[in-house]
Amino acid sequence: MTLDGITSPAELFHPESLGIPDVIFFYRSNDVTQSCSSGRSTTIHVRCSPQKTVPGSLSLPGTCSDGTCDGCNFHFLWESAAACPLCSVADYHAIVSSCVAGIQKTTYVWREPKLCSGGISLPEQRVTICKTIDFWLKVGISAGTCTAILLTVLTCYFWKKNQKLEYKYSKLVMNATLKDCDLPAADSCAIMEGEDVEDDLIFTSKKSFFGKIKSFS
């Protein structure tokens, strides 16, 4: 990486392995010397290392044991937990225990590996009241028993009601049959033999009577 003419070669130090890029500080001195015509410069790689507490450790490039390869440009690697990002809610997770004697515990722990420093602290352990599997099993059995009893009662009720309806229907049919048997027999409407002849005689006699009156007139 180069900034304002100051170069910090990446191969000077072993690469970081946590996925957090180094923060590089560039320093320049404009004092010109016979050996450093462009002045002197210093680069400091600040790297996140959660295992190294403040102030951390300072190391030199493996290829330049004195920190400089030309006597004008110096390079250092500073590893410290202070270089890590501040801790946030995303850096921890909750572990919920099983329900024991109606009590459930929630414990908060840092994610591994821990890549933060400072910031927020872990929340305190939380204790809540819970229901065990035995409790819900008892509730299910009780609900099933009540449902079965209710269905049995309803079945008996409707069966008894159906029996009453059948009895009433049978009684109505029997009463209707008895009423039909008690009615008087209908008179015959058939014309008895000889009735037509008598009517014809009456009609003929009436006609002859009117004929006589007509002849007198």
From TrEMBL:
Chief subcellular location equals: membrane
Q: Where in the cell is it found?
A: Cell membrane
Q: Does the keyword Cell wall biogenesis/degradation apply?
A: no
Q: Which domain of life is it from?
A: Eukaryota
GO:BP terms for this protein?
A: autophagosome assembly; positive regulation of vacuole organization
Keywords, sorted A to Z: Cell membrane, Disulfide bond, Glycoprotein, Membrane, Signal, Transmembrane, Transmembrane helix
For this protein, the record's Pfam families field holds: ELAPOR1_C, MRH_ELAPOR1_9th
The leader peptide range reads none
TM ranges are: 135-159
- Indicate how the chain sits in the lipid bilayer: Single-pass type I membrane protein
Q: Name residues in a coiled coil.
A: none
Q: Where is the MRH domain?
A: 1-86
List GO terms (cellular component aspect). extracellular exosome; late endosome; lysosome; plasma membrane; trans-Golgi network
Task: Report if keyword Glycoprotein is assigned.
Answer: yes
**Stated family:** Belongs to the ELAPOR family.
What PANTHER family does UniProt report for this protein, alphabetically? Answer: ENDOSOME_LYSOSOME-ASSOCIATED APOPTOSIS AND AUTOPHAGY REGULATOR 1, PROTEIN CBG13728
Q: What is this protein called?
A: MRH domain-containing protein
Q: Which organism is it from?
A: Macaca fascicularis (Crab-eating macaque)
Taxonomic lineage is:
Eukaryota, Metazoa, Chordata, Craniata, Vertebrata
